[in-house]
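Each record in this resource describes a single protein on a pair of labelled lines. With that in mind, the following record should read easily:

===
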Amino acid sequence: MKTTILFLSFIFTLSSCSNAANDNPVSNGGSTDGLQTVRIDANQTDPAIQSNSIAYFASGCFWCVEAVFESVIGVGDVISGYSGGKASDAKYELVSAGRTNHAEAVAVHYDSTKIDYTTLLKVFFGSQDPTTLNQQGPDRGKQYRSSIFYRNAKEKDLSEQYVAELLKQGTFSKITTEIVPFEAFYAAEDYHQNYEHKNPDNGYVKAVSVPRLNKFKAKFPELLK
């Protein structure tokens, strides 16, 4: 029994998002100190992206979350990054080690004439397990927590109402998702962007990210591009 537990633990470790990042040539051997993150504050939008609306979410490994939102009608670019911590900067080695209190997050740029915030909440909750505190699939730690970073009172109210309705309907027995004000977002290093698309042979992508995306697609075909 002990041998079986150790073996399963080994497989679990291999399939985690943080360990999978080591497969990337940019991060192998260590440091990404030369890769700069870009901070976007609450009153800013990313000047490099032309989109009339933006939303911020976290629900586990950002490679998975990015791929899910990018598959949805009305969504443009989705940027992987870090949000929710108090540290004045965010880099992958620090965040993945749980040293900044940031969560792996995404900035979802969308056309509000084609998709509304409530539908984004449908995508958010429909593509994760919000009942697991500080965990999503094989990834554990506060950096993988489920979070909604609202930018205004309307987003806050819609998020709280959506959670209340999910609980009322019994969709989930409990919801651990935190609903907190957006403060800042740090775009992740370049090699994290569009990671699932660029690294189809990565072990984590094949074992975790792609199945999560396919499960979402099967559940909500009407939302797909």
